[in-house]
Specification:
Layout lengths: L1 H12 L9 H4 L6 E3 L10 H6 L9 E5 L2 E4 L2 E3 L6 E5 L5 E5 L6 E2 L2 E2 L8 E3 L5 E3 L2 E4 L10 E3 L4 E4 L2 E3 L5 E3 L4 E5 L2 E4 L4 E3 L2 E5 L2 E4 L5 E5 L9 E4 L2 E4 L7 E3 L7 E5 L2 E2 L21 E5 L16 E2 L2 H4 L4 H4 L21 H9 L11
Parallel strand pairs: 1-2, 2-5, 3-6, 4-9, 5-10, 6-11, 9-12, 10-13, 11-14, 12-15, 13-16, 14-17, 15-18, 16-19, 17-20, 18-21, 19-22, 20-23, 21-24, 22-25, 23-26, 25-27, 27-28
Antiparallel strand pairs: 7-8
Amino acid sequence: MKKILSLFIMFLLGSNFSPAKPLEAKLKGKIFLVVARDGSGDVTSVQEAINRVPDHNHCRKIVFIRKGVYKEKIVLSGTKTNVTLIGEDADEVILTYDDHTGRVVDTATIGTYTSFSFAADASDFCAMNLTFMNSAGPVGQAVALRTSGDRQILFHCRLIGNQDTYYTFSRYRNYIQDCYIEGTTDYIFGRTTAIFDNCHIHSLKSGSFITAASTEQGVKFGYVMRNCLFTTAHEVSKVYLGRPWRPYGQTVIMNSYLTEGIHPEGWSIWRGNENHKTCYYAEFNNTGPGVVNANRIEWAKQLSPEEATRYTIENVFARSTNPELFSHDWKPDLDNDLVYQIVKKHVKPFLKGKKTR
């Protein structure tokens, strides 16, 4: 009966009609391994798939992950270069663990650095259409994703946690596009040079801080957030855009929408030190009820149109930003990446207009 109905629909719509293919089918011939919890793929765990990638790999390996909750503490070691993880569905492919600071495992006490659910230590890592989660709850520092390699890309991913959700640990470069990130205190933190494009950033706790940059002295750019949506959970208010974890922390927010849950001062000091005297925190052309420029803290900056032109991908990711570590200029060339284009056409962006909450 279903076959007859399908043929009838095709007849009504004409001979050019073809049903939409699932993402895995669209990527046929490009996938290295398929992960499926039920045993229907090549392996049943994400870590096993990563382990099968050759060390110092030069030819990109795509690992496709079918729907499921994968409770694993996963490490993509520095030798596993050029790996792409693609989930079947951003909401239903969940890579999660529940470590947090203070937890004792085999006599070792977990700290912020080791509390991760997923550690991406390799360069040229890419993740698309999946969720990184730390399910420990509001118990202190509990990292969902820790990144350490250079030239890492996140596209259409969810990063879910509470305190310290996303730890950009290294001094290298991350590009984050169309992602949803939520948390409580300092839930985007670290010293990486990172661009966040068209991301939805959602705060869960009143009086908390979204970013805690620790950019090192002499590095030209820290966090650059462009065309993002900043929202808060119901009845959450007075959320700060960031505070400087280290003396030269840098965060710039541009062309973004800020909900009324954002604190009128915008930014906060890090109590107990004077990091705010040497940090660089700025805004440009933001909109929404959270933009109250007259009340912004005195050491924050409003960029001029000329100053704002510096914040392009080419400039931020140029070798000159951090010549000590960046071996060459880098521009994520996603428009010419066939796999990215396939995934992009398959998903609906997280950022779907402006909200007040």
